[in-house]
Each structure stands twice: as structure tokens, then as C-alpha cells.
Amino acid sequence: MGQPECSGSRVAIPTIQAAVEMRFLSASKSERESAARLFPPSRNPYPGNREDLIDSVGDALYASKICAYAQGMALLRRASHQYDYGLNYGEIARIWRGGCIIRARFLDDIREAYTHEPNLPSLLMAPFFREALLKSQKSWRHVVEAAVQQAIPVPAMSASLAYFDAYRSARLPANLIQAQRDYFGAHTYRRVDREGIFHTEWKSKERSKKD
């Protein structure tokens, strides 16, 4: 695999962002208590099998952690590329494994992935983690869906799932957003059926339709 594509200094880290933002929200204790009285939860008993759900939560957490580490490594790769740090990602995983905070056992698997392929574009691409995500995907979706139905916030887990789905999508809804930006700000857009950069006089077309 070659070097990763670079797009300025932008790196998507939604799981990491969600975790930080939840710490901010968690700190607003009195405000949340007031909101809880105004918006009481309407939770119904979980209709599924409790033991199966517990197993699924384990799979969902594992898959989410893979995405979190993938985002962290992507951020390090971008910084290394931009500032010429020359980081060794397998060595970073080894150091984390022996630290006092991040000591996850699968750091050994991360080290192995980067030892085998130093230029890995994303941890998600490594065969070991690819298989783990494919295996966990059904449970992952089930847990996020169950949490939503039970009004239980799982921002990092759901952000990880959205990241996974977006990363593996050849075409994203952002294409529509680009057209909307062109509508209100003439920011131009690209098309999927031909090369080039385009701008459309959207309001003129609306007027012609009415006429």
C-alpha cells in the first residue's frame, strides 16, 4: 500500500470528539438534572434477550475501540506527514502498551499490524481488524439501535459506527451538501458524471419552472 492521501491538515476523529464533548456535558450536572425533570425518559423494558445483549455490547465496544484507535493513528500519521516527524506507529503501540493509562491488550495487535505494513492507510485496513469489524458489525448495529430505543446516549459508540460506515462508502451525502452550498453561496461543485468544476444558477431554474 502507498502513502495515504493528504487533504491539508484535516483528519476525521468523530469518536474522540464525541468522548471529549460528553465529558463537557457530564460536567453540567445541575443543568442535566433540571432537564431530566422537563424531559423524563420514556424507557420500556428491553424486549430482547438480556444475555445476548450483554454479548453484543462486548462486540460493539470492541469495534468502537478499533475505530477510536484508527482515528488516533490517522491523526498521528497526518501530523507525521505534515511535520516530517517520521513516527513509527508499531513502536508507539508498544510504548502505549507499557504505559500507565493506555494498556489495552489489542495494542499488541496494532503493533503487529504496523510492523507488517508500516504504510497502512488506516488500521481498519489491517486484515486482523477488518475481520473483527466484519464479525462485530451485526452486534454493533443492534446495540446502537437498542440504546436509541431506550433513550440511552452512546455518542462515542454511535460515532464510531457512523465513522466506519462513512469510511467504507465510495459516495457520501456530502455530495448533496456541496450542491446546497453552491445554491446559496455559489461555491461550485463537482459532478460524478464528468470532470470539471461547475456552478448552477439554481434560482433562475426555479423561476423558469414556475413560468
The total count of helices amounts to 9
**How many strands, which pairing sense, and closed or not: the largest β-sheet?**
2 strands, antiparallel
Strand content: under 5%
Q: Can you tell me the overall shape? A: globular
CATH level-4 homologous superfamily of the largest domain: N-(1-d-carboxylethyl)-l-norvaline Dehydrogenase, domain 2
Q: Unreliable stretches, pLDDT < 50, 5 or more residues?
A: 1-6
Commentary on this structure:
The longest helix is centred in the first third of the chain and has 34 residues, at 50-83. The protein folds into two domains: 14-22 and 46-167, N-(1-d-carboxylethyl)-l-norvaline Dehydrogenase, domain 2, CATH 1.10.1040.10; 174-210, Single alpha-helices involved in coiled-coils or other helix-helix interfaces (Up-down Bundle), CATH 1.20.5.320. It has helices at residues 14-27, 29-38, 50-83, 89-97, 107-116, 127-149, 155-167, 174-185, 202-210, and strands spanning 189-190, 197-198. Helix content is 64%, strand content 2%. By secondary structure, it is mostly helical. It is built from nine helices and two strands, in the order H-H-H-H-H-H-H-H-E-E-H. Helix 1 (14-27) packs antiparallel against helix 7 (155-167), helix 3 (50-83) crosses helix 7 and helix 4 packs antiparallel against helix 5 (107-116). Mean pLDDT is 89; it is low at 1-6.
Concise structural overview:
This protein is an all-alpha fold.
